[in-house]
Amino acid sequence: MNRDRSLEDLERDRWAAPSAGETRLTATVRELRRKPIGSLTVEDMRLLIRQDVGLAYVLPLAVEALRVDPLAEGDMYEGDLLAAVLTRSAEVWSERPDLRRDVRLAISGLADIPPALAPEVEAFLALQCCDRKGSPGCLAGSPHAG
User: Fold this and answer.
1) Which residues neighbour 141 within 8 Å (Cβ) at sequence distance 6 or greater?
2) pTM of the full predicted structure?
3) Would you state the pLDDT for residue 65?
C-alpha cells in the first residue's frame, strides 16, 4: 500500500463538490480523504473509521498503531481508536480475519481494560464471524467453525 497516496487516489473516487449545507464532519472527512494516508493521525483514523470511510486502507493502519499502543488516543479519550476499530461490523472482520486476530492480540496484551471500553471489547470478542475457511480466529458456535 502506497502511504503517499490519498484515499481519493487509492479508491479512485473523488467526491462531488461540497454542498452549501455540508456539515463540519462531512467537510472534515472530505479533507481527510485528500490527505496522504501515511500522514493520518490517530484522530484522523478514528474519525474515518467511525464513519466507515476508507476502511480497506485505514483499518490496517489503525491496527498497526494499536499493535504499538492499544490505547492510542485521538481527541476524545484514551483508547478511542480501539473503540472505533472494535465497533466495526462483523462483515468487516469476516473480510479481514488477519486484522481481527491482530486486534484480539492487542486486547490480550492490555493489563487492564478501561471500564469505558469494556462493552466494546466484550462485544468484539463475542463476534461470531470468521473467514470462509474456518480459520483459527473462528469462535465456537460460529457457522464456519471447523
Assistant:
1) 128
2) 0.85
3) 97
